Fold:
Amino acid sequence: MKRFQNLYIYFMACNSCSTGKDGQPTGCKNNGTCGADSCNKLTVFDWLSNMSLPNGEAPFNYIEVRFKNGRKHYYKNTENLSLSIGDVVATQAQSGHDVGMVTLTGELVRVQMKRKKIEIDSDEVLKIYRKATQKDIDIWSTARDKEEAMKVKARQFAIDLKLQMKISDIEYQGDASKATFYYTAEERVDFRELIKVFAKEFRTRIEMKQVGFRQEAARLGGIGSCGRELCCSTWLTDFRSVSTSSARFQQLSLNPQKLAGQCGKLKCCLNYELDTYLDALKDFPKTDIKLQTEKGVAVCQKTDIFKGYMWYAYEGEWMNWHKLTTDQAKEIIELNANKKKAVSLEEYAEELIEDTKTDFGNVVGQDSLTRFDSPRRKKKRRNNRNRNRNKRRPQSNAK
Structure:
């Protein structure tokens, strides 16, 4: 248990989790996948964990390992180690070794590698050396403690050299032999002089890696406007392009402050329900079609996708809107296609006149809901200044 005390601080384990003898979390009973997603970022639920392989089938000998801030790689278990979710392992790197935590084993790793188009026999797939020893974890945790102070100094060095870049994160390799600096920039940056300053100051090998603004938000994490953790830092892996047309189809206000996420780009969730809206809009006539009536030409002003209503206004009378159903709008469009005109919109819209008056009731047993409608009259204060002054004045004794 001692070797895992510092581990969960960096891997964001929840307080209810604990580690058993085999390395699996025993608190939440979800094999490393908490309902709050606090044990692992970008986690995959191992729904095959309670199923055994058929007789004669060898387990898939590739392992998914997660490092700092959701960075994941796949490794080959050449030593046939008995690994389970939550084990800390030392993995092969370009030079030296790295330290990470096992997040997925078994056949689901094959599915994940296929989904990410990673070949099993590729040279990019490295191997696992061993389970991490106490010495490996001590070196790794000591290096991680330096990262925050290094980031402050690195940002100051970039400012002094007047480089148009932002250093967002620093990640040490498990053996503390290399530090990777993640940065964002609008344009290409010449950081050759910056690397010399870093190498002289931090006394380690330096690697600069540029990431996009969405990838930066995914690495750092945060809370979105919905009150939940960012999708890109918890489960979203493929970043599809988001355009303002997604907001237009969903009848959203084109307000950049509301549509932009923490990365400064349009929110990824604008695409989540877009297909549903597009399917619903198939039953609506096109909004650029004008309705020809004997009273005048009507133009679409607004649509209600959920209730199936459309509002039209006559040209020149833009303040007066008439609410029609989609069937009624299609009926008028069909008349216009046959070179006929409808009499007016009123004969269709009058069927949908609704009483908008709302009758509020006291359903919770509290004070009247209209108690603030009429202001209370202020009571006039009596002027007792002279009376109080007389009380405070001492009476003189007549001699």
The chain has four domains: 2-136, 146-216, 240-280, 291-352. Confidence is low (pLDDT under 50) at residues 1-16, 30-38. The chain is about 25% helix and 15% strand. The CA atoms of residues 60 and 267 lie 37 Å apart.
